[in-house]
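Hi all, a correction to my earlier message: I attached the wrong file for FAD-binding oxidoreductase. Here's the right sequence:
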Amino acid sequence: MAGERLRSFGLATPPAPRAIGAEDGIALLRAGQAKPASLLAYGNGRSYGDSCQNEAGTVVDMRPLNRIRAFNAETGLLEADSGVLLSDIIAHAAPYGFFPAVVPGTQFVTLGGAIANDVHGKNHHRRGTFGCHVETFTLLRSDGKSHRCSATDNPRLFRATIGGMGLTGLILSASIRLMRVPSLDIVEKATPFRDLGEFFGLAEAADQANEYAVAWIDQLAGGRNSGRGLLFTGNHAEHGSHAASRAGGNLSIPVQPPFNVLNRPFLTAFNAVYRWKKGRSTAPRQVGYHSFFFPLDGVGDWNRLYGPRGLFQHQSVIPEAAARTVVPELLAAARRAGQGSFLTVLKRFGSVRSPALLSFPRPGYTLTLDFPNKGAATLALLRELDRITVEAGGAVNPYKDARMPADIFASSFPEWPRLEALRDPAFMSSFWARTAKKLDTRRGAVEAAE
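and the right structure:
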């Protein structure tokens, strides 16, 4: 369990300085010997920032807890340990005609991580977040007790743990409800749009007509081509494969390049080829689920392409009423800064409410940008994107973050004190320490002065 491999996916933050296995972490908690702020669950390291790290403490590697305990092929109810990967859940349920109701952009996340981050997918307008499909889970806290949590049993802990970034204790196992699908294959359609105005004109109708919808933006295009891209819609094919693969593709990045491979000339050429290849035909076509949901999973360790300094991801959600002016402003800010985003995704969130106390998705449009870490210049751009977002009444995603200031977090999630009140005292993350705990300290100082 080398600390070097227990990193966040963005590679821009230090690796975990100390790590223990799941069994050791469980024994420590059950014995009541966990020190304050000393622990944090670590799933499969697919978080981009430091919400999966505890720089001042120890991370608990939950991947050894990887057993699927039960599956009801009639109802789609699946019970599994928290370290089970989403890829294993898909492989187990696919032959019976079931698929997770919500999947993020990678299948290599743990069940516990999907709950703790309340992940969302390309169908938020219909299914909401992952937490909407969680029935129960078992939570081990530093009081030494295992708490069964659901909407009716320990409901406050249930709501705080979903989207709670691992701060309420260790999720040992969970039951989730999968959705029945005719096949794993997807009937995909790509619709080119000339600018963001045309995209916004298409987006709501696309959501109403399709299970899945997401747009790719050519972030580098300026002038009259500014905001051009492709809108991808999809539905499960009536006749297709029920075979699932547990592994990714055969390609991988075996070593860390000494520099950022994804530079501006590369991105310009890549965007041109991608737009031509994906947009040359607007006829629906049937594709495998890997290529539709998890295209980057086919390249192992693709994050290494950003170079040794890693990457920062910025994901914002903008209220629907402001999106038509603010989303173009966000893209323009990145172009002015001379920063290129390898993956630029725009999606529409619906109004399905999550049971989570803190959940990033809310009605509006969410824009995701990936930037190579160029130090001060990149950090300055990210602060500008923060400013534009919160001034529009939007929010920045903490699960993808590695550097947001405490005030941006407070503006994005004014309910944060309610999670702090339910946080297990033995659990802490680097993210929470630099945001919420700073806010809590300031609040305490003000109250003392009064």
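Sorry for the mix-up. The mean pLDDT is 92.
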